[in-house]
Amino acid sequence: MADKVLVCKDCGAEFVFTESEQAFYKEKGFDNEPQRCPACRKAKKAQQNRGNGSRGNNNRGNNNGGARRSFGSNR
User: Fold this and answer.
1) What is the DSSP string of 50-68?
2) Which stretches in the chain have pLDDT values below 70?
3) Per-residue pLDDT tens for 48-57?
4) How far apart, in whole angstroms, are the C-alpha atoms of residue 8 and residue 36?
């Protein structure tokens, strides 16, 4: 396996998809080569984290600031 030169779909810059990266992708079972250069991947990830909140956010769309309604016990 040799290094591959790919073109970023966002900025059009060429970037190298190294042998070690290719081996990592194969080991993880990824079928597709990366479409974005490392800088655009980082920017896209940061944009997703900013726009949608963190992935660990369990707010699930109810914008009540985390407040929960409490109910009395059933005793």
Assistant:
1) HHH--TT---TT--STT--
2) 52-66, 75
3) 998 765 555 5
4) 4
**Residue whose pair of structure tokens reads 């194969």 in the numeric block:** 26
**C-beta separation of 25 from 33 below 8 A:** yes
Length of the chain: 75
Amino acid at 53: G
Residue 75 near residue 68 (C-beta atoms within 8 A) = no
**Is the model's pTM score more than 0.70?**
no
Alpha helices in the chain (DSSP H): 19-28, 38-52
Query: Would you kindly state where each structural domain of the chain is located, as residue ranges?
Result: 4-52
